[in-house]
Amino acid sequence: MGLSTHVLDTMHGCPAAGMGVKLYQTTANATQASLIKALTLNADGRNPDGLLLDHHSLKMGTYRLVFDVAAYFKLHGIALPEPNFLNLVNIDFGVAHVDQHYHVPLLVSPWSYSTYRGS
Prior knowledge:
Elements (H helix, E strand, L loop, with lengths): L1 E8 L4 E2 L4 E7 L6 E8 L20 E8 H7 L12 E8 L5 E8 L4 E3 L4
Parallel strand pairs: 1-7
Antiparallel strand pairs: 1-2, 3-4, 3-5, 5-6, 7-8
């Protein structure tokens, strides 16, 4: 159980290796956020340390994942307009059942993104 993420670059059809990600715990109304972890995704588009939060660290409440999309695409030589259409992608989500696994994947291009609760 715990919390994980995985990012796929849909423009290039590959994992988003090198993308920066930050995990925050937020207040119920998401007006305040406390940084838990900052990381750079590995070659598989995942946290190199495995889970973002293990079963014992995952608490009921609200969280935010922040993906540095613009910096990732610039790193890969994609010319983006200023300002970028997508810069930081924030996904706010809630954890209601700490006995379950929460997987938050991101499918992203410079122009669009989607997410869902994975397994």
